[in-house]
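Sequence in, structure out. Go.
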Amino acid sequence: MGILRPKIQVLDEAHKKLIYAEAKEILETQGIFLENDNAVELFKAQGFNHTKTRWMIPADFVEKCVESAPPNITLYDREGNNPLLLSGDRVHFNPGSVAVTILDENTGVIREATSKDFTRFIKIVDQLKYLDAQSTSLMYGDVPMIAQDWHRLFICLSNSNKPVVTGTFHKGNFKIMRELLLACRKDEKDLAEKPMSIFSACPSPPLKWSDLTTQSLLDCAESMIPSEFISMPMSGASAPITLLGSITQHCAETLAGVVITQLGKKGAPILWGGSPAVMDMRAGTTPMGAVGTMMVNLGDVEMGKFLGLPTQAYMSLGDGKIPDAQAGFEVGMGATLAALAGVNMVAGPGMLNFESTQSIEKLIIDNEVVGMAKHLIRGINKYDPPFAADILLDYNDNEELLSHPTTLKLFKKELFITEIVDRSSKEMWIKKGSKSIRQRAKDKAVELLEKPSKQPINESLLKELQRITKENL
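Output:
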């Protein structure tokens, strides 16, 4: 770490306390809609008040559940190595989940994806230096919809060693997904001690936890698999128009998720996450690259940190339909703000079109954006004084510092060296074909797909994953 870690803050301590207090009051007086029978039984056992499907959660019980949730999570790769600590201001990135279309880099057309597209996507994620985790980031139409949750996980585990951010859209699929994960570990205890996946669960705004999402929380808690809460308030539509109001609603919905998880099993690991948006009042859309959306995200993350929990956010994605200037500035701004805020798991690289489209070109470009954001938060490196005086004396001898020992020794540490971003001269750029950044990314994709996996899967494990898949298709 450098002299000072750069940071950003949008809420003061007084407002964090006010938001937390009001969120608890909402849960205690207005409650949440709860559809899951298993969760209802847990709520009944606590004696919570309710009216039909609306359940009130006492403020003191909320506080106890927050206290019992772990303050950090450590993820491991498929082999059980390379711990990834989600804690404090440590920042990690993964592609967002889950897009329903792909931007074809050869035709430039947004289309439905295939499992072959997803396999290519994951193989590239595996090669990208600055993406710390993979995700079940793309739906495809050549596998039955009922099987897609676990089939995407199968492709992830088979083609990349990185931890996986995933989730389920069908209640019965968790059992199969858990079986796939268990194949990568010695036993249930090993899976709990060395988790390699995070399951996303999305409450429906305002204040509703559906049967499916609630069951996902309970299933994960039982196996001590981390859950991340993806609350999605839309300012002005399904949440108050004020950013403070949206942050407060997000806090209430997410606190309810904390309660459900801790009722499932005390100490179950969780991430305080979300995918909020401000509504575009002209187009009626949910812009993920809007500055207001980013500000709500920052407030949400600060509340998670205020409560001492690991955090997640969708912040490095764009609303455009192609990897153009709009995609560039939206992703650059989002990734930088997320890094400055210390979001533990940032989702979004590769995503376009309001979280609905993935792009391999953009994924490769975004990887470099993420690298720059990570370089920024390292801060300025520390050195003992004098910082410049001695080096400048040497300049008098040669009238240049390119060959100076400190330059040769330290330039890779001090500078962020780009591959996709072009910083060559105009003449060199022309000599290389006058290619746009999209074309360079497309060429890079071909190069990456020809490389072997950085950590090839063990043949016996692959056969076991294939067996599980074959039995369930």
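Check: The mean pLDDT is 96. The two ends are 48 Å apart (CA to CA).
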